[in-house]
Design a protein that fits this description.
Distance between the termini: 40 Å
Structural class: mainly beta
Largest sheet: 6 strands, mixed
Number of helices: 0
Strand content: over 45%
Strand order of the largest sheet: 2-10-9-4-5-6
Shape: globular
């Protein structure tokens, strides 16, 4: 069974940093592209960052230069390093394997506020 467990969210001041983690199970992680998504209150869920099994990462324009997605295949884990956080980054963050269908974890709340 495909599962994702996100962690690392919290309350941070504008300009601060967080590292999100997502542990995946139930599929061959090393062969799967992974994405981080976020959903802010009253808004649609959007893709924030994408990392293929190998190759180039891609990012939502508004997070380029601030967020970095990475993966550790030995740990079945994908990370999202978030720097220079802004209030508009406040959202619930989810990871997903886009090719595996509609499987989602519980998400982790990120709140950027002074």
């Amino acid at each position: 069974q495909v599962q994702f467990v996100e962690s690392g969210g919290g309350l941070v001041q504008p300009g601060g940093s967080l590292v999100l983690s997502c542990v995946a199970s139930g599929f061959t992680f090393s062969s799967a592209a992974m994405s981080w998504y976020r959903q802010a209150p009253g808004k649609q869920r959007e893709s924030v960052a994408f990392i293929p099994s190998s190759g180039t990462t891609t990012y939502l324009d508004s997070v380029k230069g601030r967020f970095t997605i990475s993966r550790d295949n030995a740990k079945n884990t994908v990370y999202l390093q978030m720097n220079s956080l802004r209030s508009e980054d406040t959202a619930v963050y989810y990871c997903k394997a886009p090719a595996l269908g509609n499987y989602w974890g519980q998400g982790t709340q990120v709140t950027v506020s002074s």
